[in-house]
């Protein structure tokens, strides 16, 4: 099949929501793009800008296909391939998916607790002519920026309130991250609880972790090798770090402030209940 035929088939599969078929088409399409020197954009060559725009659209479809298939490593690879296209103003300004895709990538970094790379990516927006103020006002990009701020400040109640309700995100793909963000939030809370407290009532721990059932809380306790006796949870200071159990967790300096914020919210929940 020619590049044109493959592109038409890819677009049709994507529009129909047939991501599996679209995914299979992406490999031969990339091979064709390489043949025509279109996979790495440059305005120094004689390649028509329209061809580069079409290539960018193909890669954007590839990113969204990978994302909807939950293939996050492949999604990240497509973002890496797209960045050179986005750095060329003529190509970026034609894109309707630019802000959406990069905001999804930023949230992916948050779910992986990679705050260092998150901040590097934020700084890179200068290459696209966007300031921090521009990002904070953007419907898409303001979402990961707010989430990151709440994580750092320990305002987990704001994260929980948005993720536990039918919040209207600007695109449906944001909903895919709900569970991952909630789990990441709980890991941050657990990390700080273990450092600050020796013990806590089981019911309080359930509220602090924003869990609905005691059974869920007990499962969480088992995962962290804590002990629960007579309704009291004892935080064992084992040599196994939390990030060795659940993945890398960025250190948050002011643990006591974070736990204090969570406790206040937990107390408010208790009053409501």
UniProtKB/TrEMBL annotation:
Gene Ontology cellular component terms for the protein in this record: cytosol; nucleus; proteasome regulatory particle, lid subcomplex
Which UniProt key words apply to this protein? Answer: Proteasome
One GO term of the biological process aspect:
proteasome-mediated ubiquitin-dependent protein catabolic process
PROSITE patterns documented for this protein: PCI
Domain of life assignment: Eukaryota
UniProt KW DNA-binding keyword: no
Statement: the UniProt record of this protein carries the keyword Transmembrane: no
Domain named PCI is located at 71-251
Instruction: Give the record's family classification.
Output: Belongs to the proteasome subunit S14 family.
In Swiss-Prot or TrEMBL terms, this protein is called PCI domain-containing protein
